[in-house]
Amino acid sequence: MDLKDLYRDVIVDHNRNPRNFGKLEPADAHAEGHNPLCGDRLTLYVNLDGDRIRDVKFEGSGCAISVASASLLTEAIKGKSRDEVKALFDDVHALLTRHDAAVDPAKLGKLAALSGVREFPARVKCASLCWHTLNAALARSSEPVSTE
Amino acid sequence: MSAVQPARVPAPELDVARIRRDFPILDQEVNGKPLVYLDNAASSQRPRAVIDAIREYYEKDHANVHRGVHTLSQRATDAYEGARDVVRHFINAADTKEIIFVRGTTEAINLVAQSFARPRLGPGDEILISALEHHANIVPWQIVCEQTGAKLRVIPISTTGEVDYESFERLIGPQTKLLALAHVSNALGTIVPVERFIARAKALGVPVLLDGAQAVAHGPIDVRALDCDFYCFSAHKMCGPTGIGILYGRSELLEAMPPWQGGGDMILTVSFEKTTYNQLPWKFEAGTPHIAGAIGLAAAIRYLENIGMDRIARYEQQLLEYATARLATVPGLTIVGTAAHKAAVISFTLDGIHPHDIGTILDTEGVAIRTGHHCAMPVMDFFKVPATARASLSFYNTFEEIDRLVAALEHARSLLS
User: What are the residue ranges in chain A where pLDDT is below 50?
Assistant: First the structure.
């Protein structure tokens, strides 16, 4: 286990200066995510342009992994269609949980920086919280999601 | 930042190097570094004496208790009931029938909630707890309030993490049917001056339950001197096995309480028309108990008493003072919970670094601490933090280990802040 693999420069940077941080008003959809185990809590706001993500923002508090992951998510999904977001979610999920997952940097871009998380099983939920929250928002559900 | 005097290492009250040799688990490396185990409030470790007692029981004496005429059953029964007397002596209860074996503190509190409180409660009645309780001393009361229409009232705490006595005096009254208090806070380390609260409750005829989960391993407990009605604790926080704990109850109250669970062992006679219940303490011990757990607990008590609860308390205070002074030197570190009287539990936050990240970084340095809400979400809400990092010390910890903790925190700062 190498900490440098978990807290890569990209992660540290996005934790210190989260992108797209704040509230979207009005928002077409939003959802709340909560990880009761460590207290991570975030709200994700989405504006849609037909099938595409026109804008996305998040607010909340959490550990470096959850904040950086949410920040990276907002950058990655802007302009993407629902199907493209779904495909990206599957790739990120494989990246976080499967040791045999082949990381294609071209496909994942900066999200590839999260590959170190899988060496720290206790932290996978931190990185995936924002993605589950996004799914909830896109399902137009206002029910809070929980990783527990 | 003000200049902080380097903390002085006092002459230790205990021969810790020798004590550590009794704990096989402490002698290992985690992530390539010698293990520094500072998560004792979650669960402590076991000395070889406890592990051996359990192994010997299973290798030589195991059979079911209170049943057979054969030799092994008699041995198992003698060991199990002998353990009950060891516990009785440890907390200075008057009689072994006041010592009920349960799964742990949580089950003990649930037993009192359902068997003692529930039949006595109705709309207009109140149960009084404090704002620093563990969830185990909140939720059972919420459940019984829901069942009966009674109300749960909460004594506020101060910014230092102390239960506010003036508020308590205002909140307690003829409507109060039970006062349930932590003896020591698991999240903040506050030692609650329960004697004062109990005296007032007793003057008003209010029965008192103490959650002693965090208190028993760290100093002498005398339930008769405390004058409480119920005292609950878990073996695994005092070097004993998991899955076993104690409900102490005053015999007059336990006698009057209906059984909580039905089954074998808790009965004298059973027919489809009428069942007569067993006497105390077995009335509350339905089913085959955790025999090995009770034997392990007795071995843990003997081990602790052999060191001496007073000496353990004094040494842990030395550790607490040293750790508090050393942690104060870490820039951006804030200790949450600064009561005048504390057990060796230090909850803290570090500016700009989430406790969960602290936990991961410390783990790679071999340092085990707890991070999160410590099963005390209302306490976190009160201090307006989502979580804290918590170092909880035991008599087998050393001053050097506290230095390792501080060094690991410095490492976390260099990485993330």
Answer: 141-143
